[in-house]
């Protein structure tokens, strides 16, 4: 468990979301969501199915039909930035469905997104971090296991130069040994100073990597607390999330 004392919050968050509202068409889904994410920190959004976790990630990336509120990266307001320029602020999104191109090889999938910011992780480093991707670099996407697809989806974003990575349910449907491997990779990325925003239902996994938990319900952010408080919050989480 990550029980390090929370660092004093005198610095500015790398990602700051204030009073974010989001819509799918006419359907108002996010109601004033706020969160802050500090450089090098990992936070996890938790909540029932339909609470608005994925929508929060999509709203941050500008992938909703309508959003209102404040989203700042390093103090720069992103709401008015065109969607195709969002990634240039050094933020990357790994969606739940992973989006691996079945007919392309591992390496082609990896090289597909352009580099959008300085300091991306090199292909050599990526293959060092994910040795099974190196072994399978010429295999087509169709031949990859779910775990390999998840690693490739993450690796592909790391190469772009993103320093803030939004990861939607990275362990969903994966065997325990692969979940463990993904946890180790995320801890490696934390050591490299990456800033991570996870959506995750697997608490045992999340407590290993997250510094704080953010609890959502019905499109609202209820509260956040450090991972050290997770045990004392379990009854509340059972009530809100149904774990
Ligand atoms: N493309 C869409 N069009 C319309 N409504 C949507 C769409 N996607 C999600 N919703 C609705 O938005 C609300 C929030 O969904 P969201 O996917 O963000 O929840 P979640 O907390 O990520 O849960 P899950 O784990 O089930 O994905 C739900 O009521 C859902 O039905």
UniProtKB/TrEMBL annotation:
SUPFAM superfamilies xref list: P-loop containing nucleoside triphosphate hydrolases
Could you tell me the keywords of this UniProt record? Amino-acid transport, ATP-binding, Nucleotide-binding, Transport
Please indicate which superkingdom the organism of origin belongs to.
Answer: Bacteria
- Gene3D superfamilies assigned: P-loop containing nucleotide triphosphate hydrolases
Query: Any idea where the ABC transporter domain is?
Result: 15-243
Q: PROSITE patterns, alphabetically?
A: ABC_TRANSPORTER_1 (PS00211), ABC_TRANSPORTER_2 (PS50893)
Whether Transport counts among this entry's keywords is: yes
Pfam families attached to this UniProt entry: ABC_tran
Q: Which GO terms describe its molecular function?
A: ATP binding; ATP hydrolysis activity; branched-chain amino acid transmembrane transporter activity
Biological process (GO) annotations held by this record are:
L-amino acid transport
**InterPro entries found in the cross-reference section:** AAA+_ATPase, ABC_transporter-like_ATP-bd, ABC_transporter-like_CS, BCAA_Transport_ATP-bd_LivF, P-loop_NTPase
Family affiliation: Belongs to the ABC transporter superfamily.
State the organism of origin.
Aureimonas glaciei
| Protein name (database record) | ABC transporter ATP-binding protein
